[in-house]
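Per-record layout

source: Araneus ventricosus
name: Retrovirus-related Pol polyprotein from transposon 17.6
length: 231
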Amino acid sequence: MALFKISPIHKVACIESVNNVSSENSKRQIDWATQVDLNHLEDEQRLKVMNLLSKYNSVFAQNISDLEQCDLIKHEIHLSDQVPIRQKPYRVPYHLKPEMRSQINVLLEAGIIQPSTSSFSAPVILVKKSDGSYRLVADLRKLNAKTVPDNYPLPNLTEMIDNLSGANFFSTLDLTSSFHQMVMHPDHTKYTVIATKFGLFEYKRLPFGLRNAIAGFQRLMNLVLAGLNEF
Protein backbone atom coordinates (compact mmCIF):
# COMPACT_ATOMS: atom_id res chain seq x y z
CA MET A 1 0.00 0.00 0.00
CA ALA A 2 1.24 3.47 -0.85
CA LEU A 3 2.00 4.77 2.64
CA PHE A 4 4.87 6.35 4.48
CA LYS A 5 5.40 9.11 7.01
CA ILE A 6 7.71 12.09 7.21
CA SER A 7 7.70 13.61 10.68
CA PRO A 8 8.07 17.40 11.16
CA ILE A 9 11.54 18.39 9.92
CA HIS A 10 13.81 20.60 11.99
CA LYS A 11 17.61 20.57 11.86
CA VAL A 12 17.66 16.77 11.83
CA ALA A 13 14.82 14.97 10.11
CA CYS A 14 13.24 11.99 11.84
CA ILE A 15 11.95 9.47 9.33
CA GLU A 16 9.64 6.75 10.57
CA SER A 17 8.60 3.68 8.61
CA VAL A 18 4.99 2.55 8.37
CA ASN A 19 3.65 -1.01 8.23
CA ASN A 20 3.46 -2.68 4.84
CA VAL A 21 5.75 -0.29 2.96
CA SER A 22 8.58 -1.51 0.77
CA SER A 23 11.49 0.57 -0.47
CA GLU A 24 11.90 -1.61 -3.55
CA ASN A 25 11.91 0.54 -6.67
CA SER A 26 10.14 -1.72 -9.15
CA LYS A 27 8.38 1.14 -10.92
CA ARG A 28 9.72 3.78 -13.23
CA GLN A 29 11.83 6.28 -11.31
CA ILE A 30 10.09 9.64 -10.88
CA ASP A 31 12.06 12.82 -11.52
CA TRP A 32 11.22 14.41 -8.17
CA ALA A 33 13.19 17.57 -8.90
CA THR A 34 10.51 18.55 -11.42
CA GLN A 35 7.56 17.23 -9.40
CA VAL A 36 7.91 18.87 -5.98
CA ASP A 37 8.68 22.36 -4.73
CA LEU A 38 10.89 22.27 -1.63
CA ASN A 39 12.20 25.83 -1.77
CA HIS A 40 10.76 26.52 1.69
CA LEU A 41 13.24 24.06 3.22
CA GLU A 42 16.90 24.42 4.07
CA ASP A 43 19.42 22.59 1.87
CA GLU A 44 19.97 19.79 4.40
CA GLN A 45 16.23 19.31 4.86
CA ARG A 46 15.59 19.36 1.12
CA LEU A 47 18.23 16.67 0.54
CA LYS A 48 16.71 14.41 3.20
CA VAL A 49 13.24 14.72 1.66
CA MET A 50 14.52 14.06 -1.87
CA ASN A 51 16.42 10.98 -0.68
CA LEU A 52 13.29 9.71 1.06
CA LEU A 53 11.15 10.23 -2.05
CA SER A 54 13.68 8.40 -4.21
CA LYS A 55 14.00 5.53 -1.74
CA TYR A 56 10.23 5.00 -1.63
CA ASN A 57 9.59 5.81 -5.29
CA SER A 58 7.62 2.58 -5.65
CA VAL A 59 4.81 3.69 -3.33
CA PHE A 60 3.79 6.56 -5.60
CA ALA A 61 1.14 5.68 -8.19
CA GLN A 62 1.24 7.77 -11.34
CA ASN A 63 -1.95 6.14 -12.61
CA ILE A 64 -4.47 3.53 -11.51
CA SER A 65 -2.42 0.73 -13.08
CA ASP A 66 0.38 1.47 -10.59
CA LEU A 67 -1.83 0.76 -7.57
CA GLU A 68 -0.69 -1.93 -5.18
CA GLN A 69 -3.04 -3.76 -2.83
CA CYS A 70 -3.19 -4.24 0.93
CA ASP A 71 -4.74 -7.49 2.13
CA LEU A 72 -4.21 -7.12 5.88
CA ILE A 73 -8.01 -6.94 6.03
CA LYS A 74 -10.32 -8.17 3.26
CA HIS A 75 -13.58 -6.23 3.03
CA GLU A 76 -16.74 -8.24 3.63
CA ILE A 77 -20.38 -7.51 2.76
CA HIS A 78 -23.09 -8.93 5.01
CA LEU A 79 -26.68 -8.76 3.77
CA SER A 80 -30.03 -8.99 5.56
CA ASP A 81 -31.01 -11.73 3.08
CA GLN A 82 -29.51 -13.57 0.12
CA VAL A 83 -32.18 -12.69 -2.45
CA PRO A 84 -30.18 -11.52 -5.50
CA ILE A 85 -30.49 -7.95 -6.71
CA ARG A 86 -30.69 -7.88 -10.50
CA GLN A 87 -30.65 -4.58 -12.35
CA LYS A 88 -30.29 -3.94 -16.05
CA PRO A 89 -27.57 -1.66 -17.41
CA TYR A 90 -28.47 2.00 -17.71
CA ARG A 91 -28.61 3.43 -21.20
CA VAL A 92 -25.32 5.07 -22.17
CA PRO A 93 -25.27 7.95 -24.67
CA TYR A 94 -23.71 6.79 -27.92
CA HIS A 95 -20.82 9.27 -27.74
CA LEU A 96 -19.88 8.00 -24.25
CA LYS A 97 -19.78 4.29 -25.08
CA PRO A 98 -16.08 4.37 -26.09
CA GLU A 99 -15.32 6.14 -22.80
CA MET A 100 -17.10 3.48 -20.78
CA ARG A 101 -15.36 0.69 -22.69
CA SER A 102 -12.02 2.38 -22.08
CA GLN A 103 -12.62 2.77 -18.34
CA ILE A 104 -13.69 -0.85 -17.99
CA ASN A 105 -10.55 -1.96 -19.83
CA VAL A 106 -8.39 0.11 -17.49
CA LEU A 107 -10.02 -1.45 -14.42
CA LEU A 108 -9.62 -4.93 -15.89
CA GLU A 109 -5.96 -4.42 -16.75
CA ALA A 110 -5.30 -2.98 -13.28
CA GLY A 111 -6.84 -6.04 -11.64
CA ILE A 112 -9.53 -4.00 -9.90
CA ILE A 113 -12.44 -5.81 -11.57
CA GLN A 114 -12.88 -9.17 -13.26
CA PRO A 115 -15.58 -10.80 -15.44
CA SER A 116 -18.44 -12.21 -13.35
CA THR A 117 -21.21 -14.82 -13.52
CA SER A 118 -22.88 -13.69 -10.29
CA SER A 119 -26.66 -13.44 -9.96
CA PHE A 120 -26.25 -9.95 -8.47
CA SER A 121 -25.89 -6.87 -10.67
CA ALA A 122 -26.01 -3.09 -10.38
CA PRO A 123 -25.96 -0.48 -13.16
CA VAL A 124 -23.18 2.05 -13.70
CA ILE A 125 -23.06 5.63 -14.91
CA LEU A 126 -20.34 7.98 -16.11
CA VAL A 127 -20.06 11.07 -13.94
CA LYS A 128 -18.32 14.10 -15.40
CA LYS A 129 -15.59 15.51 -13.14
CA SER A 130 -14.58 19.15 -12.76
CA ASP A 131 -11.60 18.68 -15.09
CA GLY A 132 -13.85 17.41 -17.89
CA SER A 133 -12.90 13.74 -17.56
CA TYR A 134 -15.33 11.01 -16.49
CA ARG A 135 -15.51 8.64 -13.54
CA LEU A 136 -17.22 5.24 -13.72
CA VAL A 137 -19.65 5.03 -10.79
CA ALA A 138 -21.68 2.00 -9.71
CA ASP A 139 -25.25 2.63 -8.53
CA LEU A 140 -25.17 0.40 -5.46
CA ARG A 141 -28.17 1.89 -3.67
CA LYS A 142 -30.26 -1.29 -3.73
CA LEU A 143 -27.35 -3.38 -2.47
CA ASN A 144 -26.63 -0.80 0.22
CA ALA A 145 -30.26 -0.87 1.37
CA LYS A 146 -29.94 -4.50 2.45
CA THR A 147 -26.36 -4.32 3.73
CA VAL A 148 -25.92 -4.74 7.48
CA PRO A 149 -24.24 -1.52 8.72
CA ASP A 150 -20.71 -1.56 10.11
CA ASN A 151 -20.55 0.77 13.13
CA TYR A 152 -16.77 0.98 13.29
CA PRO A 153 -15.92 4.44 14.75
CA LEU A 154 -14.48 7.11 12.47
CA PRO A 155 -11.86 9.67 13.58
CA ASN A 156 -13.05 12.83 15.30
CA LEU A 157 -11.87 15.76 13.19
CA THR A 158 -11.80 18.21 16.10
CA GLU A 159 -9.68 15.83 18.17
CA MET A 160 -7.29 15.32 15.26
CA ILE A 161 -6.83 19.08 14.90
CA ASP A 162 -6.23 19.39 18.65
CA ASN A 163 -3.44 16.81 18.37
CA LEU A 164 -1.60 19.09 15.93
CA SER A 165 -1.26 21.85 18.50
CA GLY A 166 2.31 23.15 18.69
CA ALA A 167 3.48 21.58 15.42
CA ASN A 168 5.60 23.68 13.06
CA PHE A 169 5.21 21.66 9.88
CA PHE A 170 2.06 20.03 8.51
CA SER A 171 2.10 17.33 5.85
CA THR A 172 -0.74 15.55 4.11
CA LEU A 173 -0.61 12.38 2.03
CA ASP A 174 -3.43 11.63 -0.39
CA LEU A 175 -3.87 7.98 -1.35
CA THR A 176 -4.52 7.41 -5.05
CA SER A 177 -7.96 5.79 -5.46
CA SER A 178 -7.70 4.74 -1.83
CA PHE A 179 -10.58 2.25 -1.78
CA HIS A 180 -9.15 0.44 -4.79
CA GLN A 181 -6.08 -0.41 -2.71
CA MET A 182 -8.16 -2.50 -0.27
CA VAL A 183 -8.91 -6.09 -1.25
CA MET A 184 -12.43 -7.51 -1.33
CA HIS A 185 -12.95 -10.86 0.40
CA PRO A 186 -13.12 -13.41 -2.46
CA ASP A 187 -16.39 -14.82 -1.10
CA HIS A 188 -18.03 -11.39 -1.26
CA THR A 189 -17.00 -10.07 -4.67
CA LYS A 190 -20.19 -11.62 -6.09
CA TYR A 191 -22.20 -8.81 -4.47
CA THR A 192 -20.28 -6.01 -6.19
CA VAL A 193 -21.20 -6.87 -9.78
CA ILE A 194 -21.75 -4.06 -12.25
CA ALA A 195 -23.92 -4.56 -15.32
CA THR A 196 -22.72 -2.88 -18.50
CA LYS A 197 -23.35 -3.11 -22.22
CA PHE A 198 -20.06 -5.00 -22.37
CA GLY A 199 -20.95 -7.65 -19.78
CA LEU A 200 -20.90 -8.30 -16.03
CA PHE A 201 -17.88 -7.46 -13.90
CA GLU A 202 -17.23 -7.79 -10.17
CA TYR A 203 -14.85 -5.80 -7.99
CA LYS A 204 -11.76 -7.51 -6.62
CA ARG A 205 -10.96 -4.29 -4.75
CA LEU A 206 -13.21 -2.13 -2.59
CA PRO A 207 -15.56 -0.10 -4.85
CA PHE A 208 -16.57 3.50 -4.28
CA GLY A 209 -20.19 4.04 -3.25
CA LEU A 210 -20.46 0.85 -1.21
CA ARG A 211 -22.09 1.03 2.19
CA ASN A 212 -19.54 0.37 4.94
CA ALA A 213 -16.67 1.20 2.57
CA ILE A 214 -15.59 4.12 4.74
CA ALA A 215 -15.83 2.11 7.96
CA GLY A 216 -13.98 -0.84 6.45
CA PHE A 217 -11.24 1.35 5.04
CA GLN A 218 -10.83 3.18 8.36
CA ARG A 219 -10.40 -0.17 10.12
CA LEU A 220 -7.62 -1.01 7.65
CA MET A 221 -5.93 2.37 8.11
CA ASN A 222 -5.98 2.01 11.88
CA LEU A 223 -4.22 -1.34 11.51
CA VAL A 224 -1.65 -0.09 9.00
CA LEU A 225 -0.90 3.04 11.05
CA ALA A 226 -1.00 1.33 14.45
CA GLY A 227 1.38 3.02 16.88
CA LEU A 228 1.57 6.24 14.87
CA ASN A 229 -1.29 8.09 16.52
CA GLU A 230 0.84 10.76 18.17
CA PHE A 231 1.97 13.80 16.20
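summary: The beta strands are 5-6, 15-16, 70-75, 113-115, 122-128, 134-138, 182-184, 194-196, 199-203. DSSP finds five helices and nine strands in the chain.
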